[in-house]
Every structure is written in structure tokens, then in C-alpha cells.
């Protein structure tokens, strides 16, 4: 049984109570509390309804349980989902040794406020406005100078084809 801190962080970032999420998702509050605590695993229908209420893709519930994530573990790639407010709802392989609790429910500039974060926020806003995939090189300052990433982002759609945010894949570039 693993507590779903990421789910609690998303709910808190939306300033919703367990009761409000449960009511809107048409489930019992006690059942929702058990989902957050990890005591219960929701059905695929319930995960879709909770995702719709909180603005994340329902596959977040399967976040680290497939061979794809095993293959990418410790790679120089970071994968992420953000909601329409550009708050993180899912991150795989966070950069700079950040903990998920320091990322989920926050925007890039809440985590690190620098030129790289501002460029990444602009990329995401452009994706939301243009509704297309966009690829850019984004450079962050770090303690040894700078670090650059090849970042591709595209609209994140729910099962109904409605845009619910942005998904990104960032690959650390080797210094030239």
C-alpha cells in the first residue's frame, strides 16, 4: 500500500477537498480517501472520472508500473504532464534530483525561477495557444555553468479528445 502523495498534491493545488472531488467524480468520499491513501485501487472508469475532475490524464494511476518506465529509469530523459494552469500532474525522472513532492502541483517557476524555467513555461503556453507539438532547445543555469535540454512538447488530450494540458519530453544534451 503506497500513499498517493502526487494525487493529494494535485487536489490541494486545485484547492479542492476530498468531498468535492468525490462528489464531482460520482464516488463516495470514503472510497476516494482510500484511493489517496493507497488502500484501494480504482477501476479504469473511476480513474478517468478523477482525472477529469482534477485535470490530469488518468494513466497517472499506472505511473511506474510498466516496462517503458523501467527502460527509461536513470536515463537523461525527463517526461512530464502539466494541466492547463501549467502545474505538474506527473513527472518521470525529475531533473536536478528534485523529489516529486517538490514538483507535483507546482509550475516551473515555483520550482526554479530562472531563464530556463521561463523558456519552458513559454514553450508550454505556445503549445496551449497553437495546439501543436513544438520542439526547442532550453538552457538552464547550474553550478558549473549551464545545462541544455532538447525539449519536445505537445497537447495532452483526455479520452474525449479534449485538451487537458501539455506533455513534455526533455533529453539532456551533452556539452559540445
UniProtKB/TrEMBL annotation:
GO terms, molecular function = DNA binding
Which interval of the chain is the signal sequence?
none
Q: Which InterPro entries match?
A: Cro/C1-type_HTH, Lambda_DNA-bd_dom_sf
Which residue range or ranges hold the HTH cro/C1-type domain?
A: 7-61
Q: Which Pfam families match?
A: HTH_3
Protein name as it appears in the record: XRE family transcriptional regulator
Q: Which organism is it from?
A: Pontibacillus yanchengensis Y32
Amino acid at each position: 500500500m503506497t500513499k498517493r502523495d502526487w494525487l493529494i498534491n494535485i487536489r490541494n493545488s486545485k484547492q479542492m477537498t476530498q468531498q468535492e472531488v468525490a462528489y464531482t467524480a460520482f464516488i463516495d468520499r470514503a472510497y476516494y480517501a482510500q484511493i489517496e491513501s493507497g488502500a484501494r485501487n480504482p477501476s479504469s472508469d473511476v480513474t478517468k472520472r478523477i482525472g477529469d475532475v482534477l485535470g490530469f490524464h488518468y494513466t497517472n494511476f499506472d505511473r511506474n508500473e510498466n516496462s517503458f518506465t523501467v527502460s527509461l529509469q536513470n536515463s537523461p530523459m525527463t517526461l512530464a504532464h502539466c494541466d492547463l494552469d501549467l502545474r505538474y500532474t506527473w513527472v518521470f525522472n525529475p531533473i536536478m534530483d528534485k523529489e516529486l513532492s517538490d514538483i507535483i502541483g507546482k509550475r516551473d517557476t515555483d520550482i526554479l525561477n530562472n531563464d530556463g524555467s521561463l523558456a519552458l513555461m513559454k514553450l508550454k503556453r505556445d503549445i496551449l495557444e497553437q495546439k501543436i507539438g513544438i520542439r526547442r532547445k532550453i538552457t538552464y543555469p547550474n553550478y558549473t555553468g549551464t545545462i541544455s535540454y532538447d525539449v519536445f512538447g505537445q497537447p495532452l488530450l483526455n479520452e474525449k479528445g479534449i485538451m487537458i494540458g501539455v506533455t513534455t519530453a526533455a533529453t539532456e544534451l551533452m556539452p559540445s
